[in-house]
Specification:
This protein has helices spanning about 5, 10-15, 30-35, 55-60, 70-85, 90-100, 125-135, 160-165, 185-190, 210-215, 255-270, and strands at about 20-25, 40-45, 65, 115-120, 140-145, 155, 170, 195-200, 220-225, 245. By secondary structure, the chain is an alpha/beta fold. The chain folds into 2 domains: about 5-65 and about 255-270, Rossmann fold (3-Layer(aba) Sandwich); about 70-245, 3-Layer(aba) Sandwich (Rossmann fold), CATH 3.40.50. β7 (about 170), α9 and β8 (about 195-200) form a beta-alpha-beta unit. The N and C termini lie close together (about 10 Å).
């Protein structure tokens, strides 16, 4: 839902719109809502609501329908894949072979995933699935969040306390002002020179300048990131970091996700209700 595109439409065409389709990353600002006086329902691909004018939606009685369950399994699976990519040097080993370096020596050592102490920041739908998958792989799982839950994994009272107790910190928390910059320079220092950061949450939850410094200086061992503060125009320094695996916000890019998502969107948009979309 883009304000510029809506402004190019006639007033009558905009006024006739009752249903809108957007994404968690696109959201719906106050400017967009003002251009759609007849809007009744917004369907958003994804789970986040931090880029929506929630006060505006409430005041006008507009229903926001999201697709969190459709995204859960693929995002959790991606987090585990990124963890393997970082700890087992998947990307750097690929580059090592392609450069022809194999004939000149051995590749660098990685880290065994089984037995790693892994901390999950945000034990919601996605975080719980990540924890279950890593538990099954033999990892020692802990977590932090708004409060302790009835789960078999250890609870830490803060992100910093969790970082100090684990080898890998996996970010699966929601975005928004409440979590902005929660991975600070101090958290990265607590994670330590043999620690790894995995982010499938939002780029906003990490102090990127501090992360880049930590990676450049070896104050943490590595990172694997599917999300960035400014997408797709991420900080160019990331591309020069050999100890950072980069992914283009592609956690849910699977054939199964698209199939399930289309079915869910048809349901949520109520395409047979006669409304204008």
């Amino acid at each position: 839902m883009d304000a510029d595109g809506l402004e190019a439409m006639t007033v009558d065409a905009r006024n006739a719109i009752t249903h809108g389709l957007t994404s968690a990353m696109g959201g719906a600002s106050a400017d967009v809502l003002a251009l759609l006086p007849g809007l009744q329902v917004i369907v958003s691909i994804g789970a986040g609501s931090d880029r929506f004018d929630m006060d505006g939606l409430d005041q006008r009685g507009i229903t926001l329908r999201t697709t969190p369950d459709i995204m859960t399994e693929d995002t959790a699976e991606c987090a585990v894949a990124l963890l393997f990519a970082a700890l087992r040097n998947v990307a750097t080993n690929d580059a090592f072979v392609r450069r022809g370096d194999w004939g000149n020596g051995r590749a660098d050592l990685g880290w065994r995933v089984s037995g790693r102490r892994v901390g999950i920041v945000g034990l919601g739908r996605i975080g719980s699935r990540v924890a279950s998958k890593l538990d099954a792989l033999g990892c020692d799982v802990a977590y932090t969040g708004r409060g302790k839950k009835d789960v078999p994994w250890r609870f830490a009272g803060s992100v910093a306390a969790l970082a100090e107790a684990v080898d890998v910190l996996v970010l699966t928390c929601s975005g928004g002002e409440e979590t902005r910059g929660i991975v600070t320079r101090d958290v990265l220092t607590a994670l330590g020179p043999e620690g790894f950061l995995i982010n499938v949450s939002r780029g906003s939850v990490v102090n990127e300048a501090a992360l880049i410094d930590a990676l450049e200086q070896g104050r943490i061992a590595g990172a694997a990131l599917d999300v960035f503060e400014n997408e797709p125009a991420l900080d160019p320094r990331f591309a020069a970091l050999p100890n950072c695996v980069l992914s283009p916000h592609a956690a849910v890019f699977t054939h199964e996700n698209r199939r399930d998502l289309l079915a869910e969107l048809r349901h949520l948009l109520n395409l047979t209700d006669g409304g204008h979309h």
